[in-house]
Amino acid sequence: MSKVILVTGGSGLVGQALQHVLNDTESDPAFRAQPDETWHFATSKEADLRCPEQTRQLFEKYKPTHVIHLAALVGGLFKNMSHNLTFLRDNIRINDNVLSSAHDADVTKVISCLSTCVFPDEKGLRDLYPLTEQKIHIGPPHPSNFGYSHAKRLVDIQNHAYKQEFGRNYTSAIPTNVFGPYDNFDLRDSHVIPGLMHKAYLAEKSGTVFQPSGSGKPLRQFIYSRDLAKLFVWMLRNYDDVEPVILSVPEEQEVSIEYVVDSVVKAFQKNRASTDPSKPFDVKIEWNRAAADGQFRKPASNEKLATLLKESGVQFEFTPFEQALHETVDWFVKNYDSARTGVNKQ
Amino acid sequence: MSTPKVILVTGGSGLVGQAMRHVLFDEKTELAFRAQPDEVWHFMASKEADLRSPEETEKLFEKYKPTHVVHLAALVGGLFKNMSHNLSFLRDNILINDNVLNTSHKTNVQKVISCLSTCVFPDGAGAPPDLYPLTEAKIHLGPPHSSNFGYSHAKRLVDVQNRAYKEQYGRNYTSAIPTNIFGPHDNYDLRDSHVIPGLMHKCYLAEKNGTVFQPAGSGRPLRQFIYSHDLAKVFIWMLRHYDDVEPLIVSVSEEQEVSIEYVVNKVVAAFQKNRAARNEAAGSDGQFRKPTSNAKLRAVLEKSGVNFEFTPFEQALQESVDWFVENYETARTGDVNQVSLL
Q: In this structure, are residues A223 and A177 in contact, taking their beta carbons and an 8 Å threshold?
């Protein structure tokens, strides 16, 4: 049966990774676009998903049978902290419009994208770690971005409600920290890895010291956007349950921020060696230890994913961290002028 | 306090809306909670505007230009409707609440008091061991009961929205969390109704048809009930004096918990007193205890110096039964012929 798949947020970090995985001749054939699949990538220019009519028109235009819903209003810590209402309300509207338009258009499957920030904050909760799919609602999320987090949690509730009332299999994925080409590298906004990349790049360029914040000791699980994209493709083709799936490397592959910093610098050095060996990438690292660390660990279990992959017999392996960083740094250096760096905004 | 207030009450014809009308305007009620000269009150019902529609909500606000809102309107239903329509209850209530809060914000309404429900609290099963007594701080400590999760999550979201409006715009939009409400103008439809109106209606029918009902369960589960007239007084007090974004549980004290058996007996006594003697009624146990703390309510009332006392339970039941008997023909009783299915 042929599928028409609409990807909302098609030009973002994950959307671009999906496009790469589906179309690039060098990527794994198992996750390449299949003959019975038509893929459409929609962006915010095409439709403002906060508006019910525009969402409806988008669905009428493409007539999808499946949806991968990546579109969201996202922002860094600072934007979130002072705009919880906007992040709550706009994301609720986007998600409600997409799900209800999908339902009205009889879409077979919607996979929405949650985030590990939706999980409860650790304060006062025993046995919270490692995070699993069952623990989403057992306590309030971190207060700094409660608006965004509640809007995302509501997607899981809506999925259950659509299932209960209409038998729909609308579901969701919960990735841990994503990184890759086409990320947001704006220093005011960015997540850990793109932020460190951009800082290292600027430090070397201007001959100043690269100053990562904190002690470097906190541990995190990171997932390469292209690996995440493969897993979305796999879920679309194979996963029919309403319960969410955490998409993450195993707990054992947690890395420290210090390890990330060193690996990022090595990736730049390797990139420079291949593009301009006469000018080695040389930067001095000085940790700003006065800055606060985030939480020490927020481990998530990927057991459900591992079990499902094994049962479905698909061959999937996570890209080694260093390789993923190399590819990302290579892309960043090559595309600096057009990447989302926020440089012109200053 | 002398700037005039225009207060819009959504859901104005329901159980709580009617109680507010009574408390504000009936000359027999306590003066302290009667409508004040600087207050103009408007009670709207769903016929006037479908609050699921942003445009209709906007028109409603344009018509009345409220400075304050008591937001009681909601899509509510009994256990059975909820269980099979979680999406409708989730979505419609989210739409209603978002429209009311957003329109209030855009038209610079000073205060909105929304009405939550103790069903929003985490379910006992699988909840942390120190969950009871329920307090305002415990709303989000776990998922609500699964039977009406749609409705519960929509209500919880109001508290999240209130905090977000506060954080981003400094608005004092807040909420009250009443425990089990009863009173005149209740919903007595047996498929739908809550404990007290359900028992009242069954008693009435049993006596009328000359049949006997046997209470199901032990009668031992305990509950805190609040009379709608008392709740209305607290809403009025909150409107005039409560400026916090944190919700307020509105309940009698834990010590005034009553068993279902006690309720059955008092309902019967009220009917006896009203007209004739009758027997038992039916009902299932449900959770044994869901005690709620009203410590915060007592503290804020005391601090504000207002004289407030809960109506004694027997008196409240008597007034409710008297109203029910007098208004049976027009009350919301549902299709009485469905009784045999229960």
A: yes
Q: How far is residue B14's CA from residue B12's CA, in Å, rounded to a whole number?
A: 6
Domain boundaries, chain B: 5-186+224-257+290-311
Instruction: Using the Cα atoms of residue B212, residue B217, residue B219 and residue B225 in order, give the sign of their dihedral.
Output: negative
Question: Does residue A170 carry a catalytic annotation?
Answer: no
Q: What is the CATH number of domain B5-186+224-257+290-311?
A: 3.40.50.720
Top-tier CATH class for A183-220+255-296+319-346: alpha beta
Q: Return residues 66-85 of A near B (CB < 8 Å).
A: 82-85
User: pTM here?
Assistant: 0.86
- Alpha carbons A82 and A88: distance in angstroms, whole number: 12
- Put simply, whether B256 touches A (Cβ < 8 Å) is no
Asked if A84's CB is within 8 angstroms of B168's CB, the reply is yes
Q: For chain A, what are the domain ranges?
A: 3-176+222-253+299-315, 183-220+255-296+319-346
Instruction: Give SS3 for B167.
Output: helix
**A88, A160, A165 ranked by CB distance to B164: nearest:** A88
Q: State whether B86 and A139 contact (CB < 8 Å).
A: no
Nearest Cα to Cα of residue B97 among B63, B71, B119: B71
Place of tokens 């860094």: A76
Q: Which residue of A has its CA nearest to B122?
A: A138
For A200, the enclosing helix (H) or strand (E) is helix A192-206
Mutation target among A53, A78, A85 for the B interface, most CBs of B within 10 A = A85
Tell me the pLDDT of chain B (342 aa) as tens digits: 558 999 999 999 999 999 999 999 998 888 999 999 999 999 999 899 999 999 999 999 999 999 999 999 999 876 667 678 899 999 999 999 999 999 999 999 999 999 998 888 888 766 667 788 888 888 888 888 888 899 999 999 999 999 999 999 999 999 999 988 999 999 998 877 788 998 899 888 888 888 876 666 688 888 889 999 999 999 999 999 999 999 999 988 888 999 989 999 999 888 888 765 444 333 334 444 567 788 889 898 888 888 888 999 988 998 898 888 888 888 888 766 544 433
- The pairing of strands B258-259 and B222-223 is antiparallel
